[in-house]
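Worked example 4.2. Below are the chains of a multi-component assembly; read each line carefully before continuing.
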Amino acid sequence: MTNTKTENKTVKSNFSQFIYRNKKGLATISSVVVGLAVSCIVLVIMGYNPIDLISHLVKGSFSTTENTWQTIQTWSVFLILGLAVGIGFKAGLFNIGVAGQMVFGATMGYLFVYSHSDMNPGALIGIMTVIALVSAVAFGVVAGILKSVFGVHEVISTIMLNWIAVKLAKGLIERGDIPKTNSTLTPLPDGVSTTIGSISPYITWALFAAIVIVLATFILFKYTKLGMKIKISGNNMSAGKYAGFKSKTIVVGVMGLSALIAGVAAVTYYFGEVNTSLSPLPAGHFDMPPVIGFTGIAIALIALNNPFAMIPVALLFAVTQGPAALNGIPYGTPREIGELFSAIIIYFVAISNVFIHILTPKKVKDLYVRITNFFKNETIKVSTKIWVSIANIFTLGIYTYAINNWKWTQKKDKQEAEPQLVLNGGEK
Amino acid sequence: MTDFKSIISLALLLFAIYGLVTTAGIISERSGIVNIGLNGNVIAGVLASLLFHGVLDLSKEVAVNQEDAKFGIDLASLLISGLFGVVISYLFSIATITLKGDHVIVGTAMNILMPVVAFIVLYLDATNTGFFTPVTTPGKVAEIRMAAEGGFDWRNIVYFGIALVLMASAWAMIRFTKVGLRIWASGENPHALAAAGVNVHRTRYFAQMIVGFLAGVAGAMYLKLNNGSFTGDVGGIGFFALAMLVISQWRIHWAALVAVVFALIQSTLITMQVKLPVTVPKEFLEMLPFVLPLVVLPFFNYFKKISNVPKHDGLIYDAGQR
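Applying the procedure described above to all two chains together yields the following structure tokens:
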């Protein structure tokens, strides 16, 4: 008798322990699911069929061998970006500057390629890679030094450095000695790219770099002293100081390492596919920091900085933002939809702590009781009750009006009736 | 002379925009919340203004060639955008204040989200025709306007006045009123504020509402600056404002001065770009506002007396930590 009772208890506690131990992971997964659901709702309001759209995205990513290689390329670049941000997170540094480091490295490499375009292509690629990596690292180290020596918070300094990189790139490319046609950059000369032609023109050595970096970061943080030091000083700066670590050097070094990985991503992303729609280096692209630089933040956050968990997460982002979305028109999936997914998912992952508490049935019941109590309570003024109910009815009314009058219900009428709309001041 | 006139005319509008967004950022950080999503808030303002204009034009209630009526609509759109900004600011404040999310991450999400939402609402729908057709190609800031008019625009004085009044009242609110003092305290020591019996969350929500309003108004003004053309991106004005709030060291009256300087620089650059055949190294001068914070911050970190950073800035307020 007693035995069965204790067994039952242990089973129960095992289950609750499992939930308790994986609290964070479960909360993150549920936040991703909720994020996807909310973006689907948004798409319904916009007039899309989300199920169709998602199936289009998956089909577009893997339908042909070409697309599959492109997806794998995007996947590995996203993986590298996630690792770049994740290493910063391990050391307690928030590297938003991945975009700027990528842009600066790519620009320097680009300028070098054009000033020495008569060199042997192989040597050119090698030197270009080194230059791009070194300049990206230099850009990251600036933020690290500002943090460790002058006490400038890395979020502010990297945001500013992002914009400096963008303006610098635009100025250098527009004023540099580079052949331009119609303010768009001419593609790189033949044979100069980081692609591996023997496999597919769409795949670069990003794939191998990603594998190497995943293993390297895993080993660094699992088995080496240095990784332990980085983790400790990231968790608690003063603890690291008391233990005698050179925390300032660690900050600079980690920023440099993060920027180095960002530089690898830049080299493989911007110098990858030649003459395809995925080669994104027109001059106009540099009006603002590229969104791809912020994708790494989302990937690292969702994967909870685990390098192996980043692999499936990066795949999710490669499908939503990869070739299927970029070459969207044949598949009916414009590029912005991938960004919509990623923005909403980041938003929900940022508040993922809530899902630990909010999703229990008890809390939902509490909310219901609270609302009913609000109207039952006699100490609250009647006027406030009326105001609150009016506000609720008003929002409900707006919602129903929007549902009934939104364009996807009246699409055909509007298309026929409306002439081209020119906004105020446009005709001058 | 016309050059000078147009520089001043443009600078007035630019001052209004920069000043309002920077004031919004300062109020947010004074209440202890780092709002990186300011850029998204400005975009929301532009979106609301565009939709308002679009709705009015669709219903054909206003005669087409009446300049005064149009200017009236513009002024009304400032209010509409401000109110829409307040609504959008709830997205940010719920996540950061009630749900205790990381400010920087939520801000990043807002910055990615709002341009996409604006783009999808304006230019995409299931038939790929769009609710509105783009008026012009993605224009550089105000170049079109300058090329078309090349003189003094009296409307900009009105915008300038509105911005000045809003900034002055924000400054006075922070300085002299009870609410302003509470906002200040929630950025310096929210636990002390809570001990004094004030609801910290409510104070921060109020501050974020002001932020949303100011940023939304600035967004509506940006639409005027860009001559009604918009492609889902405001050229990073929110980040520009972050730079300016660092340079002005979280003080609204300094921010006004900084905004004057940058507005003059920017308008001179734009006007010269249109008028003169000589190529000015524009990008390098545009870089200046982003380089200055990196110089100013170490300086103020050294001279701690002048530095004025809110002490609880960017930290998550948790009542259990007291």
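Take a moment to check your reading of the output against the notes. Chain A touches chain B through 60 residues (CB under 8 Å). Chain A has a mean pLDDT of 77.
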